[in-house]
Amino acid sequence: MTETMAAPVRRDAPPSMIERMTLILDAFNGPSARLTLEDVARRTGLPRSTAHRILDQLVRQRWLAHHSFGYGLGQRALGLGGQDGGHGKIREAAAPYLHELQVTTGLVAHLAVLDGAEVFYLDKLGGRLAASVPSRVGGRAPAHSTALGKAMLAWLEPEQVDALLGTGITRLTSRTIGELGTLHQELHRVRQRRGLAFERGESFPGIACVAAAIRGAEGPVAGISLVGDIHTPLENVAPLVVTAARETAQVLFPGSAAAGRGGRTRRAHADRPVPEHTWSAATMNRLLAVDGRGDWM
């Protein structure tokens, strides 16, 4: 036979998991890129179900972040690009308000971001109490056991909270929330309290904290807190924390209506105008008693 047989077409094996993950990460062409699941599947040529499974894994490992409008690069991916995830900008914006909080109250002021299931401390300003508060810049703590963590988790979708924390959460003290269902109830109370989160002895015995999230149009970007001992009347300084968080958000997102309200449009029904400096005793008592017990939990 003079006619040669055509060689069979060779089909390439499906790409490895690493290759698929690389395809997905390469689909994000910049730090501000935002893609839906459909966008990712179309750009990578991966089946939608495969893309969704890998996206979930990348979110859990913080290579990507999942927002209400889609996916974006996460802190690990941004860090590889020589960026700090905006931490420097957040610290700069919050610095004068942290200083004012610390000087005004004499308590320890913290600035932190949510990093997976943990809070990551960006700044700490303290007076005489600083040495007794077991936190440090660059340190971490479980988000569910801290007021800072709960203040930020409260403005994520419940599914995001579940994905970040996994199927179980551990107790650090006898007062730590130990079940996801209980945590979701507490996050609901945080929203009812205009974003105020409290904890007393949940992270460390003898330590109490009040916090509020710094929020933009895409959700929480950081949190500010004041820390004292277990007997500190945190309700007296809570309005100052809310004001500091709101004003930091306005510096970070000038002209943004979402930053002015401190939340996303879908949460607008939970927000109210926040007084500039203080709330009346009656208002504070009403906020702290939204669970019917007036407790912190």
Automatic annotation (TrEMBL):
Pfam families: HTH_IclR (PF09339), IclR_C (PF01614). Residues 76-254 form the IclR-ED domain. Gene3D superfamilies: 3.30.450.40, Winged helix-like DNA-binding domain superfamily/Winged helix DNA-binding domain. SUPFAM superfamilies: GAF domain-like, Winged helix' DNA-binding domain. One of its GO terms (biological process) is negative regulation of DNA-templated transcription. GO terms for molecular function: DNA binding; DNA-binding transcription factor activity. SMART domains: HTH_ICLR. Residues 15-75 form the HTH iclR-type domain. This is IclR family transcriptional regulator. It comes from the Bacteria. Keywords: DNA-binding, Transcription, Transcription regulation. InterPro entries: GAF-like_dom_sf (IPR029016), HTH_MetabolicPath_Reg (IPR050707), Tscrpt_reg_IclR_C (IPR014757), Tscrpt_reg_IclR_N (IPR005471), WH-like_DNA-bd_sf (IPR036388), WH_DNA-bd_sf (IPR036390).
